[in-house]
Amino acid sequence: MTSLLKIATAALMLGVATVPAAAQKLSPPVIVIVDMDRIVNDSAAGKTAGTEIQTKITNLQTRATTLQTQLKTDADAIQTGQANKSLAGPALEQRTQAFAQKQQQAQQELGRLESDIQRSRQYVIKQISDAANPIITEVMRDRGATIALAEGATLQHSASLDVTNDVITRLNTKLPRVSTTPPAAPAQP
What we know:
Layout: H1 2-18, E1 31-34, H2 36-42, H3 44-83, H4 89-143, E2 147-150, H5 164-174
Parallel strand pairs: 1-2
């Protein structure tokens, strides 16, 4: 009987040793949803910047059309000269090389303008995101939230969780405008 008592006591002690410590009791998370695309596009700063960037895009399209017209005129002149034999030999070669160089310069110019527009967009997004992050933290604190999720990271959510309008309202006060001129690009070696 004593050995049975010892075995039962040992089994009981092993059971106590393997019982996990009481898990920490956490409050259920309070989640808010933020649509960063709307913040960038619908905030006062985003709308103003969007208009300025659209102007740059329109200027790019106008410049592209101008260059295209100039190149077409040169190409037509070369073709006409070839057809009527007024342009041949070294003169034709020179014109063709000049045309190719002009075409390459046009492509480079348009590439730079496109790159500048892309850099402007990225700079605008960075400025707005940098200003919105502390505002999102404020809204979370005001709502007692512990998690903020990007709207695009959710499959579905209740509209009551979306705090985008609150963030936009506060952002419009703190950041009514941003620059569309990014800092100079780092020099390439």
